[in-house]
């Protein structure tokens, strides 16, 4: 009788542990996929700048967790790099870097923002995005160095560029 009670308690424990160990992560993954789809739809369909920025931030965060969450939205994220609103462009620049975009247009588009955008905040975000891409942005190092020469040495842009170059070269501590 005592043995049966222990066996039942052990079986219940193993069932719960199995759910927590296997089932719960699957539920979390499904939730993250759902969040990514919602953010992607918000980015694609919304005209509201705040909604677009929030969607880009969410996609960047989810992409850091797992690239496949953000991957379907990468084309829309790259399109947002050309948005008329500087806040959206900046959020998109950082988000594609956070997500680790593997699209071949990512680095050239971020370099274009770094070189030619009128807004300092967008240039900073482009440099951050390149740094977040790490070695995928190797081709941008010379452009970053050039931008650093043009920037005030004490500016935030110059500091971000320096950090990004270190990150790309794998020397960031």
Estimate percent helicity. over 70%
H/E topology pattern:
HHHHHHHHH
Structural class: mainly alpha
Number of domains: 2
pLDDT average, as an integer? 88
Please describe what this structure looks like.
It is a single chain. The protein has 173 residues and is mostly helical. The protein has helices at 2-45, 49-65, 67-70, 74-80, 86-99, 106-116, 120-133, 141-150, 156-169. The protein has two domains: 1-73, no CATH class; 104-173, Leucine-rich Repeat Variant (Alpha Horseshoe), CATH 1.25.10. The chain is 78% helix and 0% strand. The longest helix is centred in the N-terminal third of the chain and has 44 residues, at 2-45. It starts with a helix and ends with a helix.
